[in-house]
Amino acid sequence: MQKIDRGYFCIYVKSIVSDINFHKSVMIKICQNCICYGYGFSGMNYCKKVYSIMNNFALYVLTILIWGSTWLAIKFQLGSVDPMVSVGYRFALAAVILIAYCRITGLKMRFTFREHMCIALFGTLLFSLNYWLVYVAEIYLTSGLVAVLFSTLVFMNVFNGFIFLRTPVRIYMVAGGAVGILGVGLIFWPEISSFEMSDQNLYGLLLGFISVFLASLGNITSAYNQKQNLPVVQTNAYGMAYGALVIFICSIVLDKPFSFSMSFDYIVSLIYLAVFGSIMAFGFYLTLLGRIGADKAAYAIMLVPVVALGFSTFFEGYRWSVISVIGLILVMAGNMVLLKKKKQTA
Q1: Exposed (0-12), middle (13-18) or buried (19+): which is 341, by Cβ within 10 Å?
Q2: Domain locations in the chain?
Q3: pTM value?
Q4: pLDDT digits (tens, 9 = 90+) for 34-44
């Protein structure tokens, strides 16, 4: 027990050291106050592994919490401004802030033409077309059914990762994803049970699946870009700029009005979605994706609607039924299957 406590002290000290590469001299200095120092570099490697796990867990939780809260912010975006145009404003603002940050901090912003093409593809898939299609799909489908559709991102990332990145298909990921999707389905069962097989609803389903598929391709493109040593922050900055440009072009083609609301609620929610929902959440999620893989990271998407309902419980008076509680248990069980297997393979 004493080793664990002092090991955490090492991790805490390490968290305020800017060198994240764990150079030998730095680790010696850090670990002198840690019990693992007596075990040599094998003990230091243990601290490094635990720090990495804790860091990934923090990225996982922060992603879920931020995206879970954006469901409330998005409600303030709906009104006088067309949803597609609002999405363009969101990513354009996020791109401007990120590019300014990169310039101020001196981060590399020059990339080859081929790298820009990869970034543009990534931004088009993840920050524009899929958002547009999911907004159109929600015209025909309930938000609960859309949440279930996006839960299939786990499966799509598994199989797209296998096809494009040659990532092996892990059976426990498929099993955990299936349990999680069943749980999400039970949570939103009242909305799903009212679904009718009309032409319009089937059209909405098709658009929803295409949206999720494009988002999955965006995930895989990000994983590929990171394998090519393209940094997450800069690729997100340019990717959001490219995504916003595509959204604005689509808005012009579809004759969407470029209006803007000066209301306090709209502006504050737009800033929140740009800074937290886009810059921070996508930064956390895509960093996590590069570390643990697109298949494992996608499970965070499955937990987002659960967290959103948690916020709704406190702010909107949402009441959990027996079926929704069972669904929540299944979602958590699917997550535990993933986490338990990860511990066994560590």
Answers
A1: middle
A2: 1-62, 76-345
A3: 0.79
A4: 434 343 444 44
